[in-house]
Specification:
This protein is about 50% helix and about 15% strand. It is built from six helices and seven strands; from the N terminus they run H-H-H-E-H-E-E-H-E-E-H-E-E. The strands form two sheets. Strands 2-4-5-7-6 form a five-stranded mixed beta sheet. Helix 1 packs antiparallel against helix 3. The longest helix is centred in the N-terminal third of the chain and has 58 residues. It is globular, with a radius of gyration of 23 Å. The chain starts with a helix and ends in an 8-residue tail after the last strand. Bound molecules: adenosine-5'-diphosphate. The site of adenosine-5'-diphosphate has 21 residues, from helix 5 and helix 6.
Length: about 280
């Protein structure tokens, strides 16, 4: 028995050391990934700002505006630069989240108003894809203390994804509920759920989709449209969304019965936010 015990003990020690070494290796890889994003995003930002600025100047040039072909070419550059700008900004957000330097500029905010602003911003995409967007319970939600720009990013990401992963003619519902209605004192929270009738998510991927650069499906296979059906992206949107929600002292997670492009089980993204951001969160 003693020999067996000793054998087991040394086995446990050896395995623990292996695990610790694997963990250190993973930590190093993650740090390398983070350093890579920092360098790339900073290096790309300056030339991109130049391309963006000059292409916008070209667009407003009357000579170019009169020439239909040239105007179309310049529009292409402006759109491309804008898309790259968005990607680089997401990378910079990821760096801030990794380094815990994301700064929130909080004010009093109505989630109902925020969703309505996004609804009109996304109206052309919703119309084009014939997707209906309904809301429920948002107007009854109390106002919360939050960073309006940051939360707009979160819900823009969730709604854009819901459009992207729902086939034409589908539906999206945004539901709100006061989790602590009637409760006096203590921490109060609201929950907002963005539900779609789309292709759904494999249960094994439900957590991984929040890690940086993670995307389901073939990496090289993606259309570049922001709201095209299954149009890919860099896989940073949900990482940024989770970082922002957690910086507010909230939680975000996904639920889905599975990934099925025929049965369309849909997905639901839950966001829980406190009415007041706890000082420890910022
Ligand atoms: P991207 O930058 O590609 O939009 P995200 O971080 O927003 O990256 O999403 C990561 C992955 O999560 C996507 O590639 C997609 O596979 C999956 N995903 C996100 N939202 C949904 C959704 N509403 N329905 C199905 N899959 C989704």
């Amino acid at each position: 028995m003693r020999r067996l015990n000793e054998g087991l003990e040394s086995e446990v020690i050896a395995r623990t050391e292996e695990l610790e070494s694997a963990y250190r290796h993973l930590e190093l890889l993650d740090r390398n990934k983070s350093d890579f994003i920092t360098v790339v995003s900073h290096e790309l930002r300056t030339p991109l700002t130049l391309i963006h600025g000059f292409s916008q100047m070209l667009r407003s040039d009357p000579v170019i505006a009169e020439d239909e072909l040239r105007a179309k070419e310049v529009e292409g550059i402006v759109n491309g630069a804008h898309r790259l700008h968005t990607i680089v900004n997401s990378m910079l957000d990821v760096v801030k989240i990794d380094h815990r330097t994301l700064h929130l500029n909080c004010s009093t905010l109505s989630v109902d108003y925020l969703v309505e602003v996004l609804r009109s911003r996304l109206a052309p995409a919703l119309d084009e894809r014939r997707i209906t967007l309904t809301t429920q319970g948002l107007s009854d939600l109390p106002e919360i203390e939050a960073d309006p720009d940051a939360l707009t990013k979160v819900f823009n990401e969730l709604l854009t994804n819901a459009i992207k992963y729902t086939p034409d003619g589908g539906s999206i519902a945004v539901e709100g509920r006061d989790m602590t209605e009637g409760q006096k004192g203590g921490d109060r929270y609201i929950e907002i759920v963005v539900r779609d009738s789309g292709i759904g998510i494999d249960p094994q991927a439900l957590e991984m989709i929040f890690t940086k650069f993670y995307r389901t499906g073939e990496v090289t296979l993606h259309s570049s449209g922001r709201t095209k059906f299954k149009g890919g992206g860099p896989g940073l949107g949900l990482t940024v969304a989770r970082g922002i929600v957690e910086a507010h002292g909230g939680r975000i997670w996904a639920e889905s019965a599975g990934h099925d492009e025929t049965a369309l089980p849909g997905s639901a993204f839950h966001v829980v936010l406190p009415l007041i951001v706890p000082p420890s969160a910022m």
